[in-house]
Design a protein that fits this description.
Blueprint: E1 2-3, E2 8-9, E3 13-19, H1 25-37, E4 41-47, H2 56-66, H3 70-73, E5 87-90, E6 99-102
Parallel strand pairs: 3-4, 3-5
Antiparallel strand pairs: 1-2, 5-6
Helix pairs in contact: 1-2
Length: 104
């Protein structure tokens, strides 16, 4: 990304969507984030625990509605598997209610 004021390269802000199992909501948020604002932000999702696969209903809906095949472009990840985010958005289910916490 180029900082238009300074004319220099600046790193993208890292945004992470965090859920317990990283199998549905956080995966959907990652896919949509990459599609809609991936040119501005570096988008990740992760969980505090893992399921062995992405939720099949989430995969189906994303294919039907947004033409995104999450099984081809994403996988389940733990928090330790992603870079430290600048912004963390927690998505419920024993993590906390949806909110954001800037880490910068």
């Amino acid at each position: 990304m180029v900082d238009n004021l300074q004319g220099r390269d600046t790193p993208k802000i890292k945004v992470a969507f965090i859920c317990v199992h990283n199998s549905c909501r956080s995966q959907i948020a990652e896919a949509l984030g990459k599609k809609l604002v991936g040119d501005v932000f570096e988008i990740f999702s992760a969980g505090t625990e893992l399921k062995d696969h992405i939720n099949p209903d989430a995969v189906r809906v994303m294919k039907q509605m947004h033409h995104i095949d999450m099984e081809q472009s994403q996988f389940n990840k733990l928090l330790s598997d992603i870079p430290e985010p600048d912004v963390a958005i927690f998505m419920g289910c024993n993590v906390s209610c949806p909110t954001y916490r800037p880490t910068i």
